[in-house]
Amino acid sequence: MTETLESLKPSLLWKHFAHILKIPHCSGSERALGDYIVSVAKGLNLSYKRDKVGNVVVMKPASPGREHSSKIVLQGHLDMVCEKNSDVAHDFSKDPIQAEIKGEWVQAKGTTLGSDNGIGVASALAVMEDKSLVHGPMEFLFTIDEEVGLKGAYKLAKNFLSGTQLFNLDSEELGTFTIGCSGGGDSEIALALERKKRRLKDLYRLKVFGFRGGHSGIDINQGRGNAIRLLARLLYISQEKIKFELVRVEGGNKRNAIPREAWAAVYLERTMARKMHSLLKNQFAEIQNEYKAVEQGAQFSFEKIEGSEDDPLTAASQGGLIRFLLSLPHGVIAMHPEIAGLVETSTNLAIIRCEKNEAQIITSSRSSVGSALEAVRKSIQALAELAGARIVHALAYPGWEPNLQSELLKKLTEVYTRVFAKDPLVKAIHAGLECGIIGEKYPSMDMISFGPTIEHPHSPEERVHIGSVENFWRFLTASLQELV
Ligand SMILES: [Zn+2]
Fold first, then answer.
1. Separation of CA 79 and ligand 1 centre (Å)
2. In the predicted structure, residue 3 carries a pLDDT above the cut 90
3. Is-catalytic flag, 30?
4. Active-site residue among 79, 170, 245, 250?
5. Is the peptide bond before 55 cis (omega within 30 degrees of 0)?
């Protein structure tokens, strides 16, 4: 297997990647891979630093005559997402990743491959080792725990790097330059609930499910349904016509995912059940019609359930909860004024849980502009205040505001156009990247992110396109040579 990978071009890069596959490096367990980086640096007589959390930087002097060029940082993350198919016996803590060549791609057998970000790390090691390359002074930064909250980038000391331009090698589409990302911050809301003795007899569960969900940043502009909000809409409309007693609303399970399911428990007079069901059916048919282009799997159910539940909410508390859920914003708030198709600011109504005395609601908001992020969170706060709820804003993480005037962008676009005889696609993403945090610590760092083509990262279908790795390497080395 390893021999086969090593026969690929560029051989230095694949040699290091084949070695990385043998070293377990799931998020939280990157120590051994950090050791490997250090051993390569020592073997090449390059100096390095390793900080307390495990981030490593290696310094390589300029090639002769290029001592006065600006210093470039190549950056990648050491950790990988460890996922496997349930029928695969693989222990990520000790087994090597079994990679194989399948046509134009390299893929692992039933596990994630770790080409995210193993190819980026291997290419940095190859640049470190390759004495034939022409470049200015360089730093190679390897961060830990990117996949679990960008922890290594957060812990980076402000004097760890001295470079002024940074290539982040963690993008997944050859031919695309990423030049911006969103920051984000959650808001946690607690709405007091008041309960009364129940009067109505039977317990029913209303559930909406089968929505597509998706990433709360990347997929927020896809027009998908938010199960919590749609459930709130059904309850709001129903309570205008039918008397029921709400017990709880539950929905969503991840802060960074659009909720796919939500349900409510209600007490109802049995004689009203049929009327409620037909009302819901009509209302849900309207929802299905509104979302017919994107949510073909959306369904609802309304069933009598056995078992015990809490007492119902008082009429005021029930009305307050439903109104609050229906008024909380969800979706795109603003598009970027200069970059077509890029969401600048958004918010996701992510989770609701009901305890006996309190509903807990979590929203996650994003923006590439710090003040716009705070403005969305203030509007959520204002609504919470109207509803009489308490709200806490979690610490925000910074975005990376796209700079279309960047010198680095200009130069790399020239190089790309010359090497491939076509223009790169320049984009920003509506999700967090390490560059956002690095940029906050190094405000004058000019940054860009690119990489080879990787499909299905974070899943056992992950695969990297062999030809794109070769082209990525051509472009990377040409850029280093020409940035003076
Ligand atoms: Zn990555």
1. 8
2. no
3. no
4. 79
5. no
